[in-house]
Amino acid sequence: MSGEDDRDIWRSVTSDVKPLTGGRKPVRVDTDLKPVSSKVTPAPAVVTPLRKAQEPLKLGQSPGVDKRTAERLRRGQLPIEGRLDLHGHTRESAHRALCGFLAAAWESGRRVVLVVTGKGQGILKDAVPRWLNEDPIRGRVLLVAQAQPKDGGGGALYVLLRRRR
């Protein structure tokens, strides 16, 4: 089916549509839109680290985070503002997806995200905590904790991101 066929179908469907009354301006529909790609393009991961010398992140330890916030994160009581499921990724694609996801989450001001690595002895389960300690990701992350069973348990991590300033 070509773009011209689509426009003809759209015109036949909307030919008898009458505008609503009540002072609203009509919305213009652009019929020359191109199809949206279903591929997800990760955001670029080029960022300057926020701080120079930082301690490595260790699962559950919270230097620089108040006890109440750290405990609420560990208990799964903070609202999750973004999720990344790495099932089915290769090591390289998972690393790119993680960098892009965390960059986009941080840029948009999100604080708590969930990263699903999968349970068992998977490569990603070991690699993701290591990647969280590498630049540029480490400069954005305050705390990492194992997720509660309702959010994936041992196969997922809560990540608390720094505030964007």
Description:
The protein has 165 residues and is α+β, with helices and mostly antiparallel strands. It has 4 helices and 4 strands; from the N terminus they run H-H-E-H-E-H-E-E. A 4-stranded mixed sheet has the order 1-2-4-3, sandwiched between helices. 20% of the residues are buried. Residues 26-38 and 45-53 have low confidence and may be disordered.
Defining key terms:
165 residues, alpha+beta, 4-stranded mixed beta sheet, 4 helices, 4 strands
Strand order, sheet with most strands: 1-2-4-3
**Which structural class should the secondary elements be placed in?**
alpha+beta
Give, in order, the helices and strands: HHEHEHEE
C-alpha geometry: elongated
Set down the secondary structure blueprint.
Layout: H1 3-14, H2 67-74, E1 82-85, H3 91-107, E2 112-116, H4 123-132, E3 141-146, E4 156-161
Parallel strand pairs: 1-2
Antiparallel strand pairs: 2-4, 3-4
Summarize the structure.
The protein is of the alpha+beta class.
